[in-house]
From TrEMBL:
Residues 12-105 form the Chaperone DnaJ C-terminal domain. GO terms for molecular function: protein-folding chaperone binding; unfolded protein binding. It comes from the Eukaryota. Keywords: Chaperone. GO terms for biological process: protein folding. One of its GO terms (cellular component) is cytosol. CDD domains: DnaJ_C (cd10747). Pfam families: DnaJ_C. Gene3D superfamilies: Urease metallochaperone UreE, N-terminal domain. This is Protein psi1. PANTHER family: DNAJ HOMOLOG SUBFAMILY C MEMBER (PTHR24078), OS05G0562300 PROTEIN (PTHR24078:SF577). Signal peptide: none annotated.
Amino acid sequence: MSQQGPRKPHPIEKTLPCTLEELYKGTAKKMKISREIADASGKTLPVEEILTIDIKPGSKKGTKITFPEKGNEQPNVIASDLVFVIDEKPHPVFTRDGNDLVVTQGVT
């Protein structure tokens, strides 16, 4: 008989909306999270934490930023990873095409 250790659930993914300017220049965003942690007796307790999410200059939509084991804890279960997935907010003037910025102008 083999004995398995604690299992780890699938990562928790959350969308992180960013402006085109934030993706171009890079930024740090603070995100308040609420999660459950297990104490030594196995009871779960609610806690709140503030995570700093560093967005590197030139980041793109779909980039994933992972915080290992920042999901909920349960007895005999390893906390899941918390993953923020960058989403690009629409810009009033520019659209992005790969690494290029595109602007549509009428010619008269």
